[in-house]
Amino acid sequence: MGTTVKEINDSSAKCPVMHGSMTLTGTTVTEWWPKALNLDILHQHDTKTNPLGKDFNYREELRKLDFAALKKDMHALLTESHDWWPADYGHYGGLMIRLAWHSAGSYRLADGRGGGGGGNIRFAPLNSWPDNGNLDKARRLLWPLKKKYGNKVSWADLILLAGTIAYESMGLKTFGFGFGREDIWHPEMDTYWGAEKEWLAPSDTRYEDVSKPDTMENPLAAVQMGLIYVNPEGVNGQPDPLKTAAHVRETFARMAMDDEETAALTAGGHTVGKAHGNGDAATLGAEPEGADVENQGLGWLNPNLQGKAANAVTSGIEGAWTTNPTKFDMGYFELLFGYEWELTKSPAGANQWQPIGIREEDKPVDATDPSIRRMPMMTDADMAMKMDPTYRAICEKFMADPDYFKDTFARAWFKLTHRDMGPKNRYVGPDVPSEELIWMDPVPAGPSNYDIGAVKSKIAASELSVSELVSTAWDSARTYRQSDMRGGANGARIRLAPQKDWEGNEPARLAKVLGVLEPIAAEYGASIADVIVLAGNVGVEKAAKAAGFDISVPFTPGRGDATDEMTDAASFDSLEPLADGYRNWLKQDYVVSAEEMMLDRTQLMGLTAPEMTVLVGGMRVLGTNHGGTGHGVFTDRKGALTTDFFVNLTDMANTWVPAHDGTYEIRDRATNTVKWTASRVDLVFGSSSILRAYAEVYAQDDSSEKFVRDFVAAWTKVMNADRFDLL
After folding, report:
1. Who is most buried in 72, 97, 292, 306, counting CB within 10 A?
2. Radius of gyration (Cα) for the chain, nearest Å?
3. For 672-717, how does the pLDDT look when each residue is reduced to its tens digit (9 = 90+)?
4. Is residue 674 helix, strand or coil?
5. DSSP string of 512-573?
6. Is the pLDDT confidence value at 25 over 70?
7. How far apart are CA 511 and CA 605, in angstroms?
8. 3-class secondary structure for 96-126?
9. Which residues of 459-482 are buried (b: 16+ CB within 10 A; e: fewer)?
10. Using N-to-C axis directions, what is the helix angle for 67-79 and 155-169, rounded to 10°?
């Protein structure tokens, strides 16, 4: 039967585009099959998303940057008039400080994710978080500078520089600034911001007990979806400064700040600028990501702005904290502690505090009309600084010594804006401070003029097994996190507290291996860090030779040895592995599956899915499983770098059967006899369609040499991940 006219007319009215191919309206694989392993976390920053090309080197471009000219232009920008977006008090400093703060402030210590290191605030969801309202305007104000200086300065650097220059413009002697942050070109979708499906959902949803802040779900740090820190109106919007203080303390601790740094940042952050709530928030347009195309990426459009800064609405809270909002002074403390305060409502209906009986001369002027004075305000978090005994004592110390406060704040601001940059040798520019701070995880330069061949021969002649050599090097290097450039083999912190006692590092085996390697390092004048990596390389070379391949693992000397005095031991607790799929180990059973935890570890280490595949297959046949278990060791040639893991995983002469203890058995299909055992992590390389495609490559008869070379390349990448001294 032919096509009817009606069918033609109906089809012509339909959209010709396959929905989901170019938008987010399509159903994804994981929506159809929720239990499917989603490997997107390993693919998100594919080089194809980078418009600058694979040969672009940001550090080389930075060398061409006229730092002084950029800073001069930034100073000028802060007080230039822009008709399309009015500046509070004629100065964009407060807006730029908030932009930098909220870019850097998403950092959390637990997994090192968030922060300003890649300019992620340009993308969803951060660009449209309620707490980031109107920061789209700040980024657009910076565009003329980005346009002028081009690829010589990244958005990530420019955003954080803007906040630092703003403080300088307002009178603060800053601690310094380091360039070197390279932009990302796609949202960091691997970052878990919470399970809530609505903005500003009640805090209870991410706490076991909201009255106990330390029960907040890990790795989260902010109290609600869409906030950077705490709710400025109080816990769940209910004012109670003492309860807020407890949440401030937990939130800032999860962002790597102690009580003094927290108090300094709160006071210093609110010494300048103002909050915006002089109007009806319900009249604002959609956030940037939800706005129509004619808005060109701008959101929260205010029909009542009328070109006046005083009419802006952002948080809903309205007013400045100090008498002189464009001057970095002691005004915050003078008002907070100089007056009693009472609860009130902003014009937008938000809870805030106002001073009782304030003198007219202590009021700040209107953000648009300096002939009018306005009531200052404090948030619940500000009142916490006054009412919490610990924070109050710190603030009193600051008030007694203004220079100490300014220095403490400058250092805390520097830490906030540089916390995820890694060691100091990654910093670029004329304003990098000479002082090396403990939170930078300093590592001294190591020797490189020793006899590498002699060291390798000495290691090879020892009684240490391939498994012991490889496992120790792996454990030393696997702590690396590309999220904040922490961890890794450089520094040999595996021999220091707390790492030497981590269960995942098998302390008894570690002590045995270090007992052999440390004297070798001393004998030849090498660092222990180098010798640990060399030992792993020796193990890999032995295993490759046992498989029939004579290969040399690349090695560059120069790693240094950190000391206890160089190590902030408490901050390293967050780097402890709770699982390691590469060594087939789980510290305990978790709600998250073992294979998903392996993906998380893989992404933090900066590895791709193919690199993960080749490393797991190789580590299994080398016998590096934690505790020496046999799960996944699908070979009778343990210690040889063969493709046996993949060959036997994909062999259809075998069948897989669940065992009673959560593991699996591989049985001969004909005889039903048990040949090997396996974990979920082993089986996922055969069950996931994507991972099986990689596994099949190495199971092919012609892939033995390719496997060895790919393993060595991935292994070397892990060992060198933290060699920032080679940049």
Report:
1. 97
2. 29
3. 999 999 999 999 999 999 999 999 999 999 999 999 999 999 999 9
4. strand
5. HHHHHHHHHHHHHT--HHHHHHHHHHHHHHHHHHHTT------------B--GGG--GGGGG
6. no
7. 25
8. HHHHHHHHHCCCCCCCCCCCCCCCHHHCCCH
9. beeeebebbbbbbbbbbbbbbbbb
10. 60
pLDDT by residue (tens digit) across 183-194? 999 988 779 999
In this prediction, residue 5 carries a pLDDT of 44
- The continuous run of DSSP H or E covering 585 comes out as strand 585-586
Q: Strands of 594-712 (E only): list them.
A: 654-658, 664-668, 674-678
Query: 116: number of CA atoms within 13 Å, CB side?
Result: 30
Q: pLDDT at position 688, please?
A: 97
Q: How are the residues of the chain apportioned to helix, strand and coil, as percentages rounded to the nearest 5?
A: 45, 5, 45
- Which of 226, 256, 262, 271 is closest to 244 using CA atoms? 262
Distances (CA, A) of 638 to 331, 523, 633, 664: 70, 32, 7, 20
CA neighbor of 540 nearest in space, from 613, 622, 464: 622
pTM beyond 0.70: the answer is: yes
At 18, list the tokens: 């396959």
Lookup result for tokens 């939130």: 251
The answer to whether the beta carbons of residues 716 and 616 sit under 8 Å apart is: no
Nearest in space to 588 (alpha carbons), one of 571, 576, 606, 574: 576
Residue type, position 565, single letter? E
pLDDT tens column, 330-361 = 999 999 999 999 999 999 999 999 999 999 99
| In the block, residue with structure tokens 């930078």 | 440
Tell me the helices (H) and strands (E) count for the chain, helix number first: 23, 9
Angle between helices 67-79 and 135-149 (to 10 degrees): 140
